[in-house]
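Re: the pair you flagged

First of the two:
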Amino acid sequence: MPTVTKLLYQNVMKVDSGQLSTHIIPESNLIEEQHQLRSLLDRNEGRALGLAGGFAPTGELAMLAIADKSTIVIIEFEPKKSKGNEHDERAARVFLTQDLLRRTTGFLYAFDIAPIALALSQTLDLRIANAIDVQCAGSKTRIPLAVVKQANGTTSLAQRAWIAHHLSQLSTMEDRFAQVPPVDTFRLSDEALEFLAKSSKDSFQLEQKKPTEVTRHFATSVDHQNNHINAQANRYQNKIRKGQHQRAFIDIGEHVGRGFTVDGQVAKSRGHTAKLATNNILSFVGKTIGSIKIVGRDDPTQAEVQRAQKVLEILQGLINLEHDNPWVQLIFFSSPRHDFQWPSAWTEEANDADVVKYRADRVSRPLNPSQTKAVKQMLRQSNDGRLTVIQGPPGTGKTTVIASFVQTALDGGLSGIWLIAQSNVAVKNIAEKLADFGLTNWKLLVSKEFFEYWSVFSLVALPL
């Protein structure tokens, strides 16, 4: 596939950038047709360059754009290695590493550099250094970051790389960028980088699985003065979240068999209620609100944002992931090939500990044989019983097993038990089951919003 050259005009920044020469080069042709990228790199030796990554639906890095003020080069990576091109691909990646990704002078600037760095590792087995995350410099540039980040296709990919470079040249940004620690994946071990790359890809795939269109019925009221519709959800899972790229379509009824649809946006979302601002100039007086369809994915949750931030800080060297905690080593970095051993002090402590035995007459609910086996395994304190995996479809009693374990453990003198789940709702379900077992001497840690607006279960929940 030959190199493709286009002339583009960026339309996001209010500056006259002139024509931008954009060259799209397949990786298999990069060595043979490297003059465009070589020219870009040579004239910017020691200077900043902009980067942008394009991802396949499964999370692999599909394209990498490199930009200066007048030129963008986009490298296309093939999802599967082509037979006969292995030598050219190896040579291309050596070229990219030596001349771009590990350049000794001049920083690389990109929006969301962490996913790019990790996809480089997992998709291409490449590392990167001296890379600056643009968002870390603050948002006072008034750039529509959401538009830049969410746009798709080679044209917008080129624009993202060009804008990242443009921002790096602004004198007003110089001090801010100077305070941003650069990303350097060369300093991470293979195990740590493999774990982070897999986690990043998993997060990307989960994000892609979020629905892009949801239609539900809500209890509604109308703010006639502002022509806003207030929609109230009865379940946490059904709440309307605000998204920068969402549109709302509201069915409005008049008489039997008649009605119309208005569109709008989620103006505000808090707790049970979301306020929908409509583009309708007609009055809603005397109208009934039907179903509400939300098109577009929700913005990342607070937990997702914080997780992404921690990953970035690890890549920036602000957090040490090379942890010697045995649990971290076993769960994150170990594999069946490794001869993992628990600390000898833990083994001695387990040998000296009193054995806690399961007794059916001390548990509030009867258990079937598989549940009983699981609780007994969880109660074991020997090295081969420190980690127990319980798998089963909804309704098979996994939460009952957890509560039975806690009840038995407490009855046997154990304490300091932490129950951690992947969502607020899952934590709530466990808490309700504990209360059902008569266990209420605990503290519940959930998000502030969930605690204030959705803790509808009749428990004495103590926020920390």
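Second of the two:
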Amino acid sequence: MQVLLRRAEPRDADAIIKLVKGEAAGKDDMEKTLKKRFGDRIDIPDLIDTAPFSLVGTDADDHLVLGFMAFSNGPPPVVDDNNLVQTDDYVADPRVAGVIARQEWDKWVRKWWDFKDVQVTNTKFLSFFVADPDHSLAFLDLALTTTFTLLPNLKYIGYLLPESVILFPPLSSAKYVPPATPTDDTAATSPMAPGGKKTKPPAAARRAGGRGGRKRNTKYFAEVGVRNSNATFVLHVCSRKDVVPTVKVRRARVEDCDDLVPMFRKQNLLKGKHADFYVAELLESKSESSKTLVAEADGEVVGFMSLNRDVDQEMLAETFHLEPFDFLMK
């Protein structure tokens, strides 16, 4: 089943509560388990209303809620300045919560954990997560990717877990990449291959590692080392670089043709038998008036741009209203 993502709304509360109670998965102890992970006070309507960012995963028809994830701007209220679980009376008056309530919690985090790069402006905390077991990994991957994409200043997502509780799947799972599906493009001939031989498949197909599309040795959340042995919570952190790859822009090379042609065909930008030669000519061009660039992420070509300064200015001026742009004369 395909998982779609959108912002959580008040109308989702009942469906999320069913997930919390384990009704969808047939697990009566789900709520008890979630309380160990996120604290005793689970108030879904309040989370949807007050969380600065919360998401739900649904089926394709938006009829079935498959997962819910909420974030907070700082450590959860179950932790006090002394790294201890707060009592209900203590939480009732947030003014006594010290540096956490005063939005100086980054100093507090650095005091207890070896997390030097943490800042109030670049880190959020996971305040709640629940998902249908059959779709939990797909939902987590999509939710984290979407969160980092929509919040460009976000570098880290922290999760404080009592030391007596072990990090659980899918948060402890290896990063998932959908398995590459063989297509006609992977077997297409390329003008860059002598004799029209079949070339290697695109980078996406070459790099989907592990069984079922999992990349080995890359997990969503990693434990951060402690600076104080008295800490009663374990800090786990999900980094942007492990979820959303860093894009590097460089000059295109001839060997990029193997990756670019399938990408162009997928978007219907290349048609005809000899269209591949057009890409090859762009990449081989040594003209000073034209440049070709590619965007690369995790060693995979994901974007392409060709620039050319040989422009028929008169034709453009006759075709478009260029007065606001000084007819491209400056």
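The chain has eleven helices and twelve strands.

-B.
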